[in-house]
Each structure stands twice: as structure tokens, then as C-alpha cells.
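Entry:
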Amino acid sequence: MRDPSFPLIRKNERLCREIIDNDFSDYLKGPVIQGLVSRQLLLDFIIEDQELIPEEINPVSYPFEWVADQLYDAGILTLDIMEAIISTGYELKDASAWNIIFKGSKALFCDHGSFSKINSHQWWGFGQFIRNFITPLIIEKKRSIRVSESFSIYRDGVPFEDLKKFGINIFDTGLAASLLYFFRGKDENNSDIKSMQGETNMEKSIELRRYLIKYLRYLMKSLKPTVDKTTWFDYTSNRAHYSSSALQEKKKTVEKLINKIGNISMAIDIGSNNGEFSQLLEKHSSKVVCLDIDHGAISTLYQDVEKNYYSFLINLENIIGSRGFMGTEFKNISQRLLGSDLIIFLAIVHHLHISSSVPLNEIISSLSKLSPRYVIFEGVFFNDPMAELLAKKTNRNISYLNSDYYTETLSKDFEILETFKLEKETRQIFFLRNRLH
């Protein structure tokens, strides 16, 4: 993020921040900030030659890829950080959701330059906190519009006054309108605000901030998300097209192939659902990344903090196929996912190819360009019950979807190392090595 007082520079092929103020450098090295690092609330960092070098986290997800639980935790973390520093005469000069990143399922505050000396009774970050955390959570709770969708439209969160555009009565939100008006962060050049500032009484300023933090915690508590029973929420316990023996056969095959790769630094499960196969990756990979379009499935994964997956709520059509490659979303996320050791792509090709009409060659080319070393790919044939159902719904002729067609198409971008036909031979697992490596 741009910050004139904390400019971003490149050093030894890494991005870091230049510290202009010596006092600020001492503050960052002090016990309060170092305590936040040790409590794993603040992104770790080192300071060399007045340059702050942060711990590198990859891949990083953004608010338009989060579920409500992630935004909620990000908001609570922001308040925790603010509460921890105000007694030292510092505050957060902003309260953006973009100041939070996730290391697996652990939320970390990453904007070290946001720490600023208190110089006014007003906390200018209050209005930004409302826009970034409170209003998106209100919209999801009252209108079932996901927080990810809100950030896709409003990069800096939803202005309070825009709630009416979503058919929400602003007097039915739990927000005190007068308090919001006073603290929402109007233009600091405004003469009315200047006249209110005067000489700052530090004790009073800290007291006002403690009140605001308490008030915001109260609002956040009322907006704590619950996991919705979405389409794929309970898929693993509610799938008639898979027999128990077929599932066990598939799991054994996939785990056997994962074992052949050896040490895996990063593995990506595209179409992860609730992480049934991500659990197999977890045994062999130091980092597991889960991508899915289903809010309930990603929420379930995120809440299981013991698994510590990097989870992304994304529309897979936007990263697979020509639409994805031409769109900014693919360019954005592909740079964060490049160069994994393994991608597993199971039980999803028929949804993209049949339901969403993405050509098979484009699906496969997209996987190759993500530059994994290996891919475990599940091909679904024309006689598969789920493929037949999707074809019937979309009035598609899929008689060409057979082993030979998959083999021919996959071979253009990948070397096929092994293949395994599953029960009843309606699906086939392909173990692939990327020709780009």
C-alpha cells in the first residue's frame, strides 16, 4: 500500500519499507510491538539500515477472496492491535481490511507503517473500520451478499450511507448515527474538524479510543458469522453418485501418487470443497492451498485451524480457461500461485467443461501455465452419472469424453506418467508432469 511516510523500496530482490523517522524505528524495536510479534498478531520483521524487511508470506489472499469468518477475524485483530498500542500514545492511523494477511488460517496485521502517534481526539480510522468490517458484515447478514462480493465492488469497504442501495434501513443496523457522523473521518482540512482538535489531551484521547474499541467490539459480536449450508457444504456425506469402495479406491490412488513426488513445499487443491483430499496433501506438504467457489466449504476449512490451510474463495471459471487468462483476476491470483510442486484437480473438470462450457484444452492449458511440477487430474467420462446429469441439464452431447480424448488433450501440455481407471471405469486419474519444467 502507498504510504509517503513509509515508502516501499526494493532491496536484494525483496520489497521492504524505508524508515524515515529514527524515533519510529526505536518504537518498532520496543517491547509493545515486539510483544505483538511474539503473540503472533503482527507480521514478523527485521530492521536493517533503517529499512524494515517483513517476513515473506505466500500466497497472500485479499478481502475479495475471503469468507465472512476471515473478515470478522481480521476486524477483531485490528481492534486487538489498536487496544494494545494506545496506552503508549500510538494508534492505527487507518483500519483497512487490506492491512491483514493470512498465514494459513492465522490472521496477521502486516501494515507496520500504520502505527502513528496520537495527535487528535478523533480516531480517523473509525470510519474506515465501519466501511471495511461493519457494513460488509451487515450486508451479508441481512442480504446474503458475500463480503467477497462487497470488496469486489467497493475496494475500501462499503460506505455507511450506501447501505440503502442494498435495501437496508440505516436505522436498523445498531450503529449510532450521531457517533458515526462525528468519528467517520471527514476531510482533515475541514474547518469544523480543525476547530475541534486544538491541543490534544492524551489521557482524554486514549479514553475516547478505548470507548470506540468497546463500541466496535459490541457491533462485531452482533455480526459474528455462522456457516451456511451451501450447495457443497455437506457434499462428502451426501453424494449418491459415489460408492464407498470407489471413494476409498480414489483416495488410495491419489495418496500413492502424492507419495511418489516426495517433499512438497506447496500443493494446491483446486475445487477443494471441504478439504477431503487436502488432508492427504497435508501429510506430505508444508503448505496446502485450497481454492473453491463455495462459501460454506471454505468457511468450514478456515474454521478448522488445526489444518492451517491457505484458503481462497474464488470463482474457478475466472482462473481456468480463456476468460480467466484474459481477466485481471487470473493475472492477479496466478502470480501468487505460480510454481507449486503439485496441483490436484479432482471432480471438477465436468463442472467447468459441461456446465460452464470451458473447452477442455483451455482448462488443461490453464493448469500448465500455473507452472506446477506435477498435476493429479481426474477425467470424467461421458457415462459418468454426474456428467450425464450435467449434460442433460445443459442439453450437451458429451459422447467424446472418453479416455482417448483426455489422453490426446492432456499430452499437448503434460507428460502422462501413469493412469488409473476408477470403479466402473467412468472416471480416470492421470498423473502428469508439466512440460514447462
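The radius of gyration is 25 Å.
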